[in-house]
Design a protein that fits this description.
The complex is a heterodimer of chains A (382) and B (137). With 382 residues, chain A is mostly helical. Chain A has helices spanning 2-16, 22-26, 30-33, 41-46, 48-55, 80-86, 95-99, 114-120, 167-187, 190-193, 204-209, 225-233, 248-257, 269-283, 289-292, 298-305, 314-321, 339-345, 349-358, 373-379, and strands at 211-215, 218-222, 330-332. In chain B, α1 (38-46) packs across α3. The chains are: A mainly alpha (382), B alpha+beta (137). β3 (330-332) of chain A pairs parallel with β2 of chain B.
């Protein structure tokens, strides 16, 4: 009983669902699709007499109330892909494989048996050796074979593969991104191009030469904005851009020539996301979404994108300072001095290595010997 | 029984000839990351160059040991070593420990409750009742 009430609740729930998920609502509910009655029409004839007795005459309603429900068409809850594959005689390879541009290994086919062939073709003579047969590599070497995995199949990310670390260079790229965004705005195509990929090979110098004027947080571009916008929106697929090579010294000089007012440009959401995307494309530095929301000016974006350089290791500091420069009694190691280093220092390692190789023993590590089980016994792990 | 290599052991005879410092090598181990090595790193940067210049007869080896507390190990000419953990110590406290290692003899620490301690056997040898002419009582 409880089960049936739950069903009803579910049904009413589905009715209550607004039609926004039309696809789900279009499907008949499980309760409706299910034929609860297991009695056949022939059986219902046998029970007519008792219905007559119960109702004292003509019984209202249909003889079998359950089968009188709207009969659902042969419609299934399964997604379309599943339906496709369940149909007989269809190609069962997944759609992703069928539509892939990769050269995938072919399906396995089986040759007809010798007897069958002889029945159909009496001139058939089975080969005695493999001479003259086409050589087909194994599946394990499929991707190494020419034409199966080339440069075209390798992943090319949107972001720059080379990550810019220096803050000054990052600032130059950010300036370029700002100028480009403003140029697109002035050209009136910003909303259209905010979500598209901007051409990577735009002229860096051209973008940096443009003057940005800021008044009350709103910026305008002085200079040839249309040329910058055109360079960005051009569809010409360029080879690897070489314009990104800005050295730290160049960047420092460029930064000196700009006043810092451009960093106070107020950001709205489209500009914020456009700058983030462009910065990722140019420098490979991606600002996390959660932090981006807090950035209200260009300065904030710069703070989020720039990272302090990693602190130097002590050995590097000592080398840089030349702390023990002329002292013959001091040695500074950059890495941990391990047992092998100690043997190398006394000139014994090459002898050990030779002897180990002679005995076919692993030079480092334990080879394929199992772990020390005795230690586990002693420590109570097993 | 395992075969043991002969250990070259020099007896300390300081005072009879030229003075020989017993400490021959000092190992400095530090960690770049750990906070307990902060003082040690400062010591290596600031005080060790001067100390090493002042002691040309001692060999100094500076090497990282990531994820471990900083340790100074003294090696002595009698073949013994003396390690001291210097975690969370300041550079000047570490300097004191280094001076302690430099001045140590490398011998095991033992209580000195006799005025004279000699490693030499007696020139006359140990008295034996079975040797000599005997003594008339």
């Amino acid at each position: 009983m409880a089960r049936i009430t739950r069903m009803r609740r579910l049904q009413s729930l589905q009715l209550a669902i607004p039609s926004q998920c039309a696809a789900a609502a279009a499907r008949p509910s499980f309760a409706a699709a299910r034929a609860i009655s297991t009695s056949s029409p022939a059986q219902s004839k046998n029970t007519d007499w008792i219905r007559g007795k119960l109702w004292k005459g003509e019984a209202p309603g249909p003889a079998d109330p359950y089968t009188q429900r709207m009969e659902p068409e042969a419609q299934s809850n399964l997604p379309e892909e599943a339906l496709d594959s369940s149909r007989p005689g269809r190609d069962k390879t997944p759609a992703a494989v069928r539509e892939s541009r990769l050269a995938l290994p072919g399906r396995r086919t089986e040759a007809a048996a010798e007897k069958e062939l002889q029945a159909s073709d009496p001139t058939y003579v089975p080969a005695a050796d493999a001479e003259g047969l086409e050589e087909v590599g194994t599946l394990s070497t499929w991707w190494e074979q020419p034409g199966h995995w080339g440069e075209e199949s390798e992943f090319k990310g949107f972001g720059s593969a080379v990550k810019v670390v220096d803050k000054e260079v990052l600032e130059v790229h950010l300036r370029r991104a700002v100028v480009e965004a403003l140029a697109l705005k002035q050209a009136g195509v910003f909303s259209e191009w905010a979500t598209k990929k901007w051409s990577e090979g735009g002229e860096l110098d051209e973008a940096l030469a443009a003057q940005v004027e800021v008044q009350d947080g709103k910026a305008t571009l002085k200079g040839d904005a249309s040329a910058i916008a055109e360079a960005l929106t051009s569809e010409v697929e360029e080879a690897e851009s070489s314009a990104t090579g800005v050295t730290v010294e160049e960047a420092r000089e460029m930064l000196k020539s700009w006043d810092s007012s451009w960093k106070n440009i107020a950001l709205d959401n489209p500009l914020r996301f456009a700058l983030r995307k462009r910065l990722y494309q140019l420098t490979g530095v991606l600002i996390p979404d959660a932090k981006l929301a807090a950035a209200n000016t260009i300065k904030h974006i710069l703070t989020l994108a720039a990272r302090d350089p990693k602190p130097l290791k002590l050995a590097q500091v000592l080398e840089k300072r030349n702390a023990f420069g002329d002292l013959a009694n001091v040695t500074v190691h950059e890495r941990r001095v391990g047992p092998i280093d100690k043997e190398v220092a006394v000139g014994r390692w090459k002898v050990i290595e030779e002897e180990l190789k002679k005995r076919d023993l692993p030079v480092t590590g334990y080879g394929d010997a199992p772990r020390n089980k005795e230690r586990d016994w002693l420590t109570g792990k097993i | 029984m395992t075969v043991k290599a002969l250990r070259a052991i020099a007896d300390g005879k300081n005072g009879l000839g030229a003075f020989v410092l017993q400490c021959k090598k000092l190992d400095f181990h530090y960690c770049d990351w750990a906070g307990s090595s902060k003082g040690m790193n400062g010591f290596i940067k600031s005080l060790l160059p001067k100390f090493a210049a002042a002691h040309p007869q001692i060999e100094f080896a500076v090497s990282p040991r990531p994820g471990k507390h900083p340790v100074i190990v003294g090696h002595y000419i009698n073949g013994r070593t003396k390690p001291i953990c210097v975690r969370n110590l300041s550079p000047y406290e570490i300097l004191q420990k280094v001076e302690l290692l430099r001045d140590a003899s490398g011998e095991k620490l033992r209580r000195t409750n006799k005025a004279v301690l000699s490693t030499k056997p007696s020139v006359r040898g140990i008295w034996s009742p079975y040797h000599g002419k005997g003594m008339a009582v």
